[in-house]
Amino acid sequence: MAHSAAVPPGAPEQGCPIRVEHDRRRRQFTVRLNGCHDRAVLLYEYVGKRIVDLQHTEVPDAYRGRGIAKHLAKAALDFVVEEDLKAHLTCWYIQKYVKENPLPQYLERLQP
Q1: What is the pLDDT along the chain (112 residues), one digit of tens a residue?
Q2: Number of Cβ atoms within 10 Å of the Cβ of 20
Q3: What CA–CA distance (Å, rounded) separates 39 from 31?
Q4: What does DSSP assign to residue 110?
Q5: Which residues form the N-acetyltransferase domain (predicted)?
Q6: N or C: which terminus of the chain carries fewer CB neighbours within 10 A?
């Protein structure tokens, strides 16, 4: 009998869409996990009039390895593109994401 205790109830499953929410007031992108109790988050801060610092991405241990952080990183970088902002990448994970997805629209908006 195959039973996986590693998948928490309500966790995004393979093939189940991951929905990223953007809270502009709190300056964060979130994915709700297991209803509203757990969440993955990407935090950013405005460090200039048109510059955001993508500071931190966090996915709870039980949900890691499922591509949730990729969805957060993509949503944040797409926000930078759509709003015609520049981005400083403090978060190591977003730096890694850009290296693995070197799209011109992302690269041209990076701040050193």
Answers
A1: 343 334 444 444 444 678 999 999 999 999 999 766 789 999 999 999 999 999 999 999 999 999 999 999 999 999 999 999 999 999 999 999 999 999 999 999 999 8
A2: 19
A3: 5
A4: B
A5: 21-111
A6: N
